[in-house]
Design brief:
globular, alpha+beta, binds copper (II) ion, single chain, OB fold (Dihydrolipoamide Acetyltransferase, E2P)
Length: 119
């Protein structure tokens, strides 16, 4: 199992824990318990730099699919969607652009915090 698969599995596990916790809650007031209180999400954020080519931007501008190179200590090369920390980031790129981007990773929560086109 590569590192990315592990992260996906972790994310799935977190989602399952969250859903199960919501199901087991009897009071409506307790259904919006922050994820951080249900599972251990580290406080520390790690920022990774990535390079790749934009494949598509989702219509809601909440994520971008990138065919990315290997990201050292994080994941192998692949094509995958990345959530955007800010939808304004989507306006700076378009499909087929070569890009450099920065990812913040807080446990299984990964998102693009910066992106720019490169030559
Ligand atoms: Cu990836």
């Amino acid at each position: 199992m590569d590192n990315h698969s592990l992260k996906r599995l972790l994310f799935t596990a977190v989602t399952v824990v969250f859903v199960c916790a919501a199901c087991g809650t009897s009071s409506k007031e307790e259904t919006n318990v922050p994820l951080e209180e249900l599972v251990s999400i580290p406080d520390s954020v790690v920022v990774y730099e990535g390079f790749g080519v934009v494949r598509s931007i989702n219509p809601g501008r909440t994520s971008i699919v990138i065919r990315h190179d290997r990201i050292d200590d994080f994941m192998s090369a692949m094509t995958m969607p990345f959530p955007l920390a800010d939808s304004n980031l989507a306006s700076t790129v378009q499909p087929d652009d070569s890009v450099r981007f920065e990812l913040s990773a807080r446990g299984p929560i990964v998102e693009i915090i910066a992106i720019e086109t490169i030559e």
